Amino acid sequence: MHDWRRTVDGLREQGLRELSAISDPQALERWRVGYLGRRGALTDALRGLSRLPAEERPAAGQAANDAKRALEAALAEREGALREQALSRDLEEERLDVTMPGRPPARGGLHPTTLILRQITAFFGGLGYQVVEGPEVELEKYNFEMLNIPRDHPARDMFDTMYVRPPEVVLRTHTSPMQARVMEARSEEARAQHLPAPPVRVVVPGRCYRYEAQDATHEWMFYQVEGLAVDVGLTMADLKGTLAAFARHMFGSDVKTRFRCDYFPFVEPGVDFSISTPSVRGGAWLEILGAGMVHPRVLRMAGYDPDAYNGFAFGMGPERIAMLKYGISDIRGFYSNDLRFLEQFAS
Ligand code: PHE
Question: Is the pLDDT of residue 1 over 60?
Fold first, then answer.
């Protein structure tokens, strides 16, 4: 056998063998340069043909060209195969299992205080009460003075007060200062227009603050909803009827209600208001708010003539109502941002 044939056959065989083991594009390019490039092994061999005797040249040239075409064809095929492999690998990576169940979006829910506030304001809104809000950082004048709680009066001890700037600026300890603010604003406006002071019906939801140790029934921050009605000829019967209807709205039509005497400096007489219904704490009497007829001094200080007008007022804690309605035993759950607590009310 001629040397050239061995060389050409050897190169072709070796080339094909190496090629079949190649699996990445860089190695493939190195292989191409090594065999088929301008300085590649096969190109070299073809060049060497010129040194062969003339009669052998055609056969050797033919064999070398065959080998070259065979390697080129094998290269093209290998390239195609690798491309296909890469493509199916990509497809596999991007594969999407459309039958997999989706992740449900996390839905928020209303805070229990918000739920109760909405029920309260909806009820009083239906009776024609306006919803108004007031400042949480409040003047001592409105938080106490205008509510018939003079400085150095022992009644101030009832409201464990946090002072922002003593003695004039406090964190309001209740929403009652809005009684004075609303009456004062309305009576002044009316006076400026030489009109009689108008009737008032407002409810005031909002945050209050007290300097108190936390426990299952006390928070240093909590909500209240104040109610105030002022008009000609309002009586205690109006207060009782209003609150009884409110209790039915919140706790159902078979709720029983009870008034007892209580003391708040800004009402006279003052009462506490309790409910009893079989579905809440086995029908025990539970106090849900303080109320009373607006004290004549409070009316007068805010510009309403107590000889012409009467009023009633009430103040309740929505957290307490939520606790009774939803069977919550610890008020600290409301504002500690524990989702295990809050999620129970997500609807
Ligand atoms: N402000 C009183 C409190 O915080 C509640 C109240 C409001 C009582 C209105 C009577 C009238 O305890």
Answer: no
Q: How far is the CA of 145 from the centre of ligand 1 (A)?
A: 15
- Residue 158 burial (C-beta neighbours within 10 Å; 0-12, 13-18, 19+): middle
Domain 112-345, CATH 3.30.1370.10 — does that match?
no
267 Cα: distance to centroid of ligand 1 (angstroms): 9
* Ranges of each domain in the chain: 3-93, 112-345
DSSP H/E element including 285: none
Contact 44, 102 (CB under 8 A): no
Tell me which H or E stretch contains 276.
strand 267-276
For 66-113, how does the pLDDT look when each residue is reduced to its tens digit (9 = 90+)?
989 999 999 999 999 999 999 999 999 999 888 999 898 888 889 999
How do residues 200-226 score in pLDDT, each as one tens digit? 999 999 999 999 999 999 999 999 999
- Name the residue of 146, 156, 175, 176 whose CB sits within 8 Å of the most ligand 1 atoms, as the mutation to test its pocket: 176
